[in-house]
Every structure is written in C-alpha cells, then in structure tokens.
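Late entry, written up from scratch paper. The run itself happened at the end of the previous shift, but nothing got recorded in the book at the time, so transcribing now.
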Amino acid sequence: MVKGFLSLRQVEFIEKNVATDLDGRAELLDMGFDSTPVTVIGDKRLYGFDVQKIDEALALLDSK
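Output as recorded:
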C-alpha cells in the first residue's frame, strides 16, 4: 500500500525486502522496529500505512 501511495504521489523511493535483504533487516531492527511497513522520510520514521502522516512528512521535506 505504501509503495502504491508513493507511486501515485510520484515520489521516488527505495524498497528494501527485509525477508531477503539481511542488511535491510538489520537496519530495520536498529531503528527499533521488527515488522513492516516502515517508511523513512527525511528524519521521520513512520510505522504502518498512515496517509496523513506520510503527506505531512513529505510536506516537511518539500519545505526545506
């Protein structure tokens, strides 16, 4: 859902499959999460799929 949402917003993103990417899995755990989705936008780390929080984080990124 997050990937589709970001694509609709024409936002470039990097996908990491933590089931097959051991470095990506370690990065996820280092951030304090143990499941997905986790979306990193600037300095924001968003867990789950929350349209409002994603839009707010994108707006903050655009305002910088």
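The first strand starts at residue 38 and ends at 41.
(Scratch paper discarded after transcription.)
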